[in-house]
Amino acid sequence: TVKKTNKLLIPFVFFYSIAWGIHCVLEFIKPGFWTYEGHFIRDLLSISYINVPMWFLLCLFWCNISFYFVHKFTREKTRLFAIIVLAILGYMLMKINLFCPTYFFQSFSALPFFYLGNEMRHSKIISSETTWKQLVMAFGLIIIVFLFHLKSYDKISYIYNSYVGNVFFYYIKSFMMIVAVMLI
């Protein structure tokens, strides 16, 4: 967890502070240039950041921490079940609009993707060198996802932990895209 803190939380604090520093300098030079109504500390307890992509670092940090505890306290045979339970919990928390700062609940919804990536990284399905066979499989999966997407419009927003459409289809399409990307 110290390693993940150094790789995810330290960059978050650094870039968050840099963005606010730039905002303050620009506001000092030309008031009204950057019309952001947020507040340095209050933003940390909300889902409104001056640098919007910063949410991903926090969500990824919580995914790592959650996965660490699942990995530590479950057996290999029940690990996938625990991941699915946490994903359902993330979905349920979204449905009742329960808010948690720092994207902790959103990480539950993203945990199945984290788990799949981890499992594929440790499997022998993906070789270290990309072959033509892997590229053909990857592009085949991308085409299937594209055709699947034409049939059903499913969308998820991790920033707001909101879902549109069928969540089950969204996860299937996303899993296929993860496999495609890892094959490439």
Structure description:
This protein has 184 residues and is mostly helical. It contains 7 helices and 2 strands, in the order ααααααββα. It has helices at residues 2-29, 40-44, 55-73, 76-95, 104-122, 132-151, 167-183; strands spanning 155-157, 162-164. A hairpin with a 4-residue loop joins β1 and β2. α1 (2-29) runs antiparallel to α3 and α6 (132-151) runs antiparallel to α7 (167-183). The chain starts with a helix and ends with a helix.
Key structural traits:
184 residues, globular
Hey, roughly how much beta strand do the residues contain?
A: under 5%
The overall pLDDT average reads 81
Main beta sheet: strand number and arrangement?
2 strands, antiparallel
Number of E-state strands = 2
Rough outline:
globular
Radius of gyration: 19 Å
What class, by secondary structure content?
A: mainly alpha
Any low-confidence stretches, pLDDT <50, length ≥5? none
Head-to-tail CA distance between termini: 29 Å
Helix-strand pattern: HHHHHHEEH
The percentage helix is: 55-70%
The DSSP helix count reads 7
Strand order of the largest sheet: 1-2
